[in-house]
Amino acid sequence: MSKRIVLALGGNALGADLAEQMVAVQSTSNAIADLVEQGHHVVITHGNGPQVGMIQMAFEAASMTYAHSPVLPMSVCVALSQGYIGYDLQNALHEALLNRGIDKPVATLITQVEVDENDPAFADPTKPIGSFFSKEEADAMVAKGAHMKEDAGRGWRRVVASPQPIDVIEKKTVRLMFDAGQVVITVGGGGIPVTRHGHHLKGASAVVDKDLASAKLAEMIDADLLIILTAVEKVALNFRKPNQQWLDRLSIEDGERYLAEGHFAEGSMRPKVESALSFASSKPGRQALITMLSKAREGIEGKTGTVVG
Amino acid sequence: MSKRIVLALGGNALGADLAEQMVAVQSTSNAIADLVEQGHHVVITHGNGPQVGMIQMAFEAASMTYAHSPVLPMSVCVALSQGYIGYDLQNALHEALLNRGIDKPVATLITQVEVDENDPAFADPTKPIGSFFSKEEADAMVAKGAHMKEDAGRGWRRVVASPQPIDVIEKKTVRLMFDAGQVVITVGGGGIPVTRHGHHLKGASAVVDKDLASAKLAEMIDADLLIILTAVEKVALNFRKPNQQWLDRLSIEDGERYLAEGHFAEGSMRPKVESALSFASSKPGRQALITMLSKAREGIEGKTGTVVG
C-alpha cells in the first residue's frame, strides 16, 4: 500500500558538522530510499539545531573581525541552514535512489512558516540552539544580552523563542511536487519563522519546533502518515525509570491524558507526541508513527514503533 | 501574448548587503510582478557575487576565532547564498504579486549545475567574488593561496574558476513549477557547481556564470524568451567610445562575428551576449533580450533593449 508520508528527521540524522553531515546523510538517505523504493511518496523535513547555531556564530565572529560583515537575524540564519543541509541531503538521497534504479527528482525548497507575533513563546525563549558552553562562558554571553539555558547536563546553550506554527507559506509548491511524485525537502529547521503584517511577512527571532511544523505541513498537503524520527524505537511512559513502559500504540485520548499528567520530556519527546497527536486528530484516517529511522520501514508495516491515532 | 520567460537578474538588482538587499528586492520585485501581471510565466535566476563572497569571508573569520568552526567549500557557500537571497526575493515578490491581487506561489529551489571536472577554466580562475581589497591585502591573501585579480580599477578581488554549465540537476522540478504557473527562483549564483562521478555529484570550487547557467536552464525547460538584465538599456558596439553604436537587434551571425572580433567586455557584457546567442540558437523561435530591469516590459513588447536571435 503506497502511503503519502511526511518524514521528520531528527538532528542525529544529519551530524553536527560538515564532515559528519556528509556521512550521516548517506545512511539517512539509504533508509529514506528504502521507503521510496516500496512505493511511498515522501516529503522530508528536518531539524537544524547544531547547523543554525554554527551559522549564527560564524557571522557573529565575522562581524567582530570585519566592520562590514553583518550579524544575521535568526530568520536569515534558518534560511542559510536550509541551503546548507538541503544541498547535501538532496544530493545524497538522489544518489541513493539512482543506486536503486529510481530516477526521481529530489529538491529542497526554501520554506517559511508563519507564527503569531503575539505568541507567548516570544516572552520566554526555551529552544536550545548551537554549541555547548561552560557556565562562565554562558554568564559572559548573558551579560551581552543572549538567552542561555543549561541543557540536560551537557552544558549551557543559547535559547530562542519557539512559537507555534500557523501556516506553511510554500505549501502549494510542496503539494505540487508531492502530488507529482517528486521528493521534496522542506520546512528545514522548522521553517524560516515569519509573522504576517498585511501582505508583508517579517522574519521573527525564533526557531519553530520542526515536529510541530511538520505536523502542520502534513495536514496542509493531505498526507496520511506523519513519521517523527527520534533516537529510540518507541515512546515510553516513565522513560528510563524502573517502571518504564514501551508503547506500541497511543490513542489520541491516552496521549492527551499522558501529556496532561506530565509524561514525556520537554524539548525532547513531548513536542514529538504533541505533533503526532495534532496530526492524527486533524482528520479521520490520519496516523503518526514515532520511531527511529532504521525502524521506519518495519514501523510502516505495523511491526514496531509507536503508532499514534 | 503570454510568454515563457527565464529572467536573469544582475547583482545590482539585489544590493550588496542585507539592508541594501531588502530595499533592492522591492523595486526588483515590482518590475517582475509587472511581467507576471501581463500574463507571462516567469522563472527567476540571479547572481550572488557580493553575497557568496560575504558568506565565505564570514566562515573564514569564524574559523580563525573558533577552532570548531568550518571553512566552507565554495559549493557550500553558493548553497547558503541561494537560501540567503531566495528567502528575501521570494518574500518580496510574493508581496508585490499580492499587492496586485495575484496569489501565485513563489518559491526558491536549491539548485545544482553540473560542470566538467576537465573544464580548462579550473586551471585559470577568472571570476571575481566578494569584497574589494588593496594591493597590499591582496598580496597577503595570494601568499596564503588565494587567487586574486585587479577588477576594472575598483581594487583587488578573489577570483575562482568559472566552468561551462552542462546540466541543471533540478530541471524537472523547475519545469514542474513553471508549467503549473508557479514562480520559481532557481540557479542562484549560477547554481551550486558540481561534477559527476557515476551517481555521485561532488561540489566543485567554482562559480558558474549565472547568465550561461540561465541560458542552459531556459533551453532545458523550453522557455521561449531569455531576458538577461544588466545596467544598460541596450548592448553597444565600441561601448563608451566615440564610435559607440547601440544595437536594437543582434542576429546570431552578427553576434558571433562581434564576439570573434573581440567586442564586449570580459566578465561583463561578453558572457551575456554569449548566453543570449547560446539560447537563441538552440531552437527556432527562441529569442533573448538584453536590457535593464526597468525596461524589461517595453523590451518584451519590442520597444527597447537588444533583441538577440
Task: Describe the model.
2 copies of one chain form a homodimer. Chain A has 309 residues and is α/β, with parallel strands linked by helices. The first copy, chain A, has one domain: Acetylglutamate kinase-like (Carbamate kinase, 3-Layer(aba) Sandwich), CATH 3.40.1160. Chain A has 9 helices and 17 strands. Chain A has helices spanning 18-37, 49-65, 74-98, 135-143, 171-179, 210-220, 252-260, 269-280, 296-300; strands spanning 4-9, 41-46, 106-109, 112-114, 127-133, 148-150, 156-160, 167-168, 183-185, 192-197, 200-203, 225-229, 235-237, 245-247, 249-250, 287-291, 306-308. In chain A, strands 3-9-2-1-12-16-17-15 form an 8-stranded mixed beta sheet, sandwiched between helices. In chain A, helix 2 crosses helix 3, helix 6 (210-220) packs parallel to helix 8 and helix 7 (252-260) runs antiparallel to helix 8. The longest helix of chain A has 25 residues, at 74-98. At the A-B interface, helix 2, helix 3, strand 3 and helix 5 of A face helix 2, helix 3, strand 3 and helix 5 of B. Strand 3 of chain A pairs antiparallel with strand 3 (106-110) of chain B.
